[in-house]
Amino acid sequence: MNETTEQTTPTDRDAGYLVTPARKHAPEGYRPPYQLVPEAFDHEHRLDCYVTADEHEIVYCTLCGTEW
I want to staple 61 with a disulfide (CB 3.0 to 4.6 A). Which of 39, 45, 48, 68 is the partner? Predict the structure, then answer.
């Protein structure tokens, strides 16, 4: 039997993955996929979301009303 084994380079294997650029190398206006919600000192945020008339998603805490 004559079996051949394909060898791939790391760049061939990783070609299907997206890489998030460092902020200093990101294009103008780039927004990361998510942003961390800052911790509250007196409660754990309970998040909800609504969509404005111009179709922007606003995330807010249902307990304290803070928006992000």
Answer: 45
